[in-house]
Amino acid sequence: MLVQNRNILSFRVVMKRVISIFFIAVLFVSVLYALTIRDETGYKFTFVSPAKRIISTMPSNTEILFELGLAKKIIAVSNKCDYPEQVKKLPKIGDINLDVEKIISLNPDLIVMLYDTQKYQIERLRKLSLPVFVINPKSFEDLASSILLLGKVTGTEKRAAELNKKIYSSISGIKKAKNSPKVFVVLWANPLITGGKDTIVEDIVKKAGGQNVGSKAGSSYPTVDFEFLLKEDPDYIIFSGKSYSQIKSIISQEKWKQLSAIKKGNFLLIDADLITRPTIRALKSIELIANFIRE
Fold it and tell me: Does the pTM of the predicted model rise above 0.85?
């Protein structure tokens, strides 16, 4: 009986030591991984472990996260997120007006947001001490950097490095137009909205070898009058949309027929998502425009 009690006591002592060693190991691993990093607004974060419960509040961010192989860790997305196909089945947390209560209830450890379009919402969520991480790519170089940052906070550094390499190699492989033709991108026809300075739209046009006419309008996504377009008279017009039926109703108008690009048939339709979202897919739009304006 005494021997049995001693055995039980010894077993308990051993188990306590095993448990202690386990927790010390967990603590050591956590400290070892702990990473302090600043997001693209300069906000400092310390991550003890890679994010496992991720919310994306913008379609472009969602695409990037999927490209990083994080499909199983994304727990919710915005109402506007539609690519890839599987995001349509994920819980939604609103769009311009985010459902803060739902976000809190989902207990995320990372909320990826886009600065230029969500400034107010970012501050609102930060005041609630939610784990907001902000990116703000306006060019493909910015996109490459944003991907590397997200790779660090999600533990997908290897995949992030691969995507970074893909961006630069894809751009270097595109044959640009050599005569720098003037290109106007129609994001919306009425009112007439285009992509201006410091936008992915501008970067796409430049990397295709064109001059972005919208950059002369001043702001990032300016609304311009038609006289501006007539005065600039671009060599090529790119329509952002989903179907040519939309374009036909526009170019059939008499005022549009005055433009040299319309007279010569120098207009092209590109899927809006490919030319407005700073994503890996947007590389395709550079190639499409370069091939079009190079002819």
Answer: yes
pLDDT digits (tens, 9 = 90+) for 247-295: 999 999 999 999 999 999 999 999 999 999 999 999 999 999 999 998 6
What is the rounded CA–CA span in Å between residue 140 and residue 219?
A: 19
Reference 119, options 99, 94, 96, 146; nearest CA is: 96
Which CATH entry fits the domain spanning 182-294: 1.10.10.60, 3.20.20.140, 3.40.50.1980, 3.60.15.10? Answer: 3.40.50.1980
pLDDT band at 242 (very low <50, low <70, confident <90, very high): confident
What are the tens digits of pLDDT across the range 66-107? 999 999 999 999 999 999 999 999 999 998 899 999 999 999
Write out pLDDT tens, residues 123-145.
999 999 999 999 999 999 999 99
Which is it for the CA torsion 278, 283, 285, 291, positive or negative? positive
Question: Where in the chain are the domains?
Answer: 36-171, 182-294
CATH 3.40.50.10350 assigned to 36-171: no
- CA–CA gap between residue 11 and residue 19 (Å, rounded): 12
